[in-house]
C-alpha cells in the first residue's frame, strides 16, 4: 500500500463502510480475503446520545456476566433514577453500598460505579459534548485514572459510543485470536504484535477490529485454530 493512499485516508477519517472496506482490502491478500468472507461492514453505534459516565457504568455492569444477567442487574439499577431516567452522578454518590449491592452488583463493581460517579462530578469523566472535543489518548489517559476502569473499557466507549474510527483493542482476546487466524499463527499473539501489525490499518483500526471480532464466526475458524494448536503441541513432544 502506497504512502499516498494512507495519507489520503487520514484526511477524511470517517466511519464510511465503502472507504474502510476498500482500504483494508488493499493492505494485503489476507485482509482482502477476510473482508470478502465477513462481508460488508455495518457500523455499530450502540448508544449515540448517552453520557460517558452512563456508558462506563453499563460497561462495568456487564463485565464477566452473561448478557441476560447483566441486563437484569442494569435495569434494576436504572430504576433507582427519577422518573425512569438514568441515576445522576450526584444521586449515585449519595447511594450507600447496600443499595448498589441490592441491584446485584458485587462489592467491587459497586465501588467502581461510585468512583465513576465521583469522577463525573469532579470533571474527570467529561460530558458527551466535551468528550467529542478530546482525542482518543486524552480520554484513555483521563478515564483509566478511575479505579476499576481499564483501557479496554474506555476503548469500547470510544468505538461504540463516540464512534471513533481508529481504535484497536489489543488487550481483547477475540481480537488477538482474530490475528492468529488472519496470519496463520501457531499461538495467540501478544498485545505488542497486534499493535504493530494493526498500524497498517490506520486510520480505520476500529473497522479492522470489527472484522477481527467476526473471525470466530467463520466456517473454518475452529478448524484453522485447532490445526495451528496441534502443530504447536507436536513441536513440544
Would you give an account of this structure?
This is DNA-3-methyladenine glycosylase Mag1. One of its GO terms (cellular component) is protein-DNA complex. One of its GO terms (molecular function) is DNA-1,N6-ethenoadenine N-glycosylase activity. This protein folds into two domains: 3-43 and 167-236, Endonuclease Iii, domain 2 (Orthogonal Bundle); 52-160, Hypothetical protein, domain 2 (Endonuclease III, domain 1, Orthogonal Bundle). The N and C termini lie far apart (41 Å). The longest helix has 16 residues, at 107-122. It is elongated. The chain has 237 residues and is an all-alpha fold. The protein has helices at 3-11, 17-25, 29-38, 52-62, 67-78, 89-94, 97-102, 107-122, 128-131, 136-143, 151-160, 173-182, 191-197, 205-213, 221-236. Residues 1-14 and 231-237 have low confidence and may be disordered. The protein is built from 15 helices and no strands. The relative contact order is 0.12.
Short description:
Helices cover about 60% and strands about 0% of the residues. It has about 240 residues and is mostly helical.
Give the helix proportion (percent range).
55-70%
Instruction: Indicate the overall shape.
Output: elongated
SS element count, helices: 15
The major beta sheet can be summarized as: none
Number of E-type strands = 0
Radius of gyration, taken over Cα atoms and rounded to an integer in Å: 20 Å
Q: From N to C, what is the helix and strand string?
A: HHHHHHHHHHHHHHH
The number of domains is: 2
Mean pLDDT: 87
- Write down the CATH topology of the largest domain: Endonuclease Iii, domain 2
Instruction: Kindly estimate the percentage of residues that lie in beta strands according to DSSP.
Output: under 5%
